[in-house]
Amino acid sequence: MVSVRVVVPIVVVVLAVVGVFLLAGDTGRTGTTTPATTTPQRTETQTPTPTPTPTRTQAIVSLTLYMNDYGYNASRGGPTIKAFVGDLIRIRLIGNGSGPIVHDFVLDEKSPSPYNVRSERLSRGREQTIEFIANHAGVFKYYCSVAPPAGLSHRDRGQEGTIEILPR
Ligand SMILES: [Cu+2]
After folding, report:
1. Which residues surround ligand 1, an ion (CB under 5 A)?
2. Tell me, which fold does domain 60-166 have in CATH?
3. For the CA atoms of 110, 116, 117, 120, what is the dihedral angle to 10 degrees?
4. Which of 18, 41, 147, 158 could serve as a FRET partner for 10 with CA atoms 20 to 30 Å apart?
């Protein structure tokens, strides 16, 4: 175990020195910085060797949905969410049902869709942020899966919306 303690700092120092000489900027392995894919020091160092272009920055489709009785940001239905394949979809869900009524956000085989996204069931004032990658192109329905023992399900009351994932 002693050797590990000694080796790790040496590796860190070596990597840091190598990184300085190469001016390549991949010092993410030192553990002090996150392994970001960007090379922000490029403008300062003017590396002579061509650096491969980083992969395309991932688009983030972000929105907030208030989960009302019985719609998303609405009393019925919900906004159409539009994204491209590969986008990260980040949805902040805020429970806004009345009384004990809870709501959720589901995009699954019953949508129908190839996705398997399901939030918690949130009561008024509670929130959860969900994230998923838009891996499958298509037009699908997201919906609330809550259904009381008797009467109409929330979806039957109109609590659903459309999500469109376009191919790039
Ligand atoms: Cu609901």
Report:
1. 103, 144, 146, 154, 159
2. Immunoglobulin-like (2.60.40)
3. 80
4. 41
